[in-house]
Amino acid sequence: PKQRPKKKPSSFQPSTIDTTSILEALDGVGDDFLEALIDDTADVHVRRGDTVKGSISKVNSDFMLVSIGTKSEAFINIDDTVGGPFKKGDSITATVLTHSTNGIRLTMNITEAKDEDSFLQAFEDQVPVTGTVKERNSGGYSVLVGQRRAFCPTSQMDYQNDADPDSYIGKELTFLIQELSAKDMLVSRRKILENEAAKIATNAINQINEGATVVGTVKSIKDFGIFVDIGGIQGLIPRSQFKFFQRMPMAGDQIDVDILSINRESKRISLRPKYNDPWLNVPSQFQIGEVIEVNITKIEDFGLFAELRPGVEGLIHIRNLSSKRIHDIRTFSQVGARHRVRILDIDLTKKRIGLGIRQVEEPESNVQSNSHTQTTDQSYTPPEQPRVSHLGQLLQGLKTKK
Hints:
This protein is of the alpha+beta class.
């Protein structure tokens, strides 16, 4: 076989740059020309669609200036940001939306460029896109992203899943493209929310201290405990720690909690409910025999439970409701009704208070209460009986009556 001829070495030799001559040539050039020349050479590699990283140098209510390594700073409208608020010095990753004589405009939401190349770049770089939720179907939602239909599974619409499933329909939300093909687009909103929640949790955990008492909001209730949010980070309180409470908290309730421990690396906190025992003030607030107004909180076959004040309840036993026989206690009162009652007994050790409606409405009746206290009519005096010392006096008395 014929051998291929060897290539002759190129006779081209790069010339040596005479930097001294260049500096002498530029010595008489004006500063404006040099700055323009630097701008052109600095920005030449920044094109529309490029992903850039930069540091925020200025923030106001409408836009931010971002230093991305070019001579002129880029800008990004606040409406084009995702995951804010931001402050001076923060680092961001964005996409070059336009590059013209008006400057370099960035966006963190690439949906404004609706072509397929932009969707592909958003998928590869995980840049958020904006989509409108059109309808709910089997297993998820139909979302319009630009001019394309996308699908968001129900599990990827939110990370807490406690909202009304139909509440998302018609809303314009932000998503990440998880899968992309010529026909299909799978998006997720959950990942964006989780990332934002992580940022909030980082800020929150840096602002709290062990031993502090703060106000928390009950987020969710499980069989094993209650999740409480304190400014963006959640802690779990076992149900057993609420055993001294008159009722278990409900979602949305605000409660005082003590911060027991903080793990800033794992962003975990240990909480305990702040419990101020309302029974400690009972001796100074209520006295036996006093008539007060109470609210019925629970009905049992043996009586009515009534709230004297938040955290303090008493029992109106069925025999202390009325002098008339009550066949069905639920026809006598109902939950939420208010009654005037007399305090019959207070047991601080067992945290029990005996109450009576009958003792208010029928004050002259001599009724044994549910407790050890007995209501009597002090104005009644039994007649004095004659004393008999022997049989003769007894017979003499009978003879006198005849």
